[in-house]
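Case study: Ubiquitin carboxyl-terminal hydrolase.
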Amino acid sequence: MADSKSVIPLESNPSIFTELSYKLGLSPILQFHDVYSLTDPELLSFLPQPIFGIILLFPLTPNYEAYRKEKDAEAGTYENENPNIHWFKQTIGNGCGLYALLHLLANISTDLTLSHSQINDLVTKIQGRNLSVEEISLIVEELEKSIKLDEQFGSKGQTEAPPLGEAVDLHFISFIKGKDNHLYELDGRRKGPIDLGEVGATGKDSIIKEQKLIEKIQFYIDNADEKNKHNFALMALGPTLD
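Here is what the predicted structure looks like once written out:
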């Protein structure tokens, strides 16, 4: 399925992701925060708890692309058969930031989103309707049009945005618990949601403490080539600091 269009990629910036989240319908009791370590207790202590979801920005290296193609070749065709998680196939070029955000907002408790909001409307449209992956992709594309992603968010941030349509070698994915208390890796470039297994006792109340999350992100870092070892960024969705 070819990309429907290409957008200006979002910057890995908690303020931008929070603003876009509020536009979509996230409750103002939550916001995004930078994460500087998953293992340093002192740095983790600065994060308000609980953490509901994580967005990872990582480099698309040759090692990663080989890994992705190998794993996807082993996977069957996904037909939205998992009722415990919402996953969206990415069909908007450079739109991975939006998909990563939607993967969190569509899967957190409805108590944490506003009624009659765009995100609740999206979930209502896709839930329990036996829609195909392609049909859901079209609904997400219509949502992006209504958001006006480039016009409203494409040029925001501290760094200069790349020209529209220029390919970038960085990619956003998300991690969040499903309704079955399993940790899921959600990436619109893959062939479906990736079930990482049941969340343990350490991650029960806050996903950032989950060992499976720490191990999977460390796997990506360890498999990056030397020039990309530091091209990673993490954001966490948790309580506001105000």
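For the exam, be able to explain this: The chain has eight helices and eight strands.
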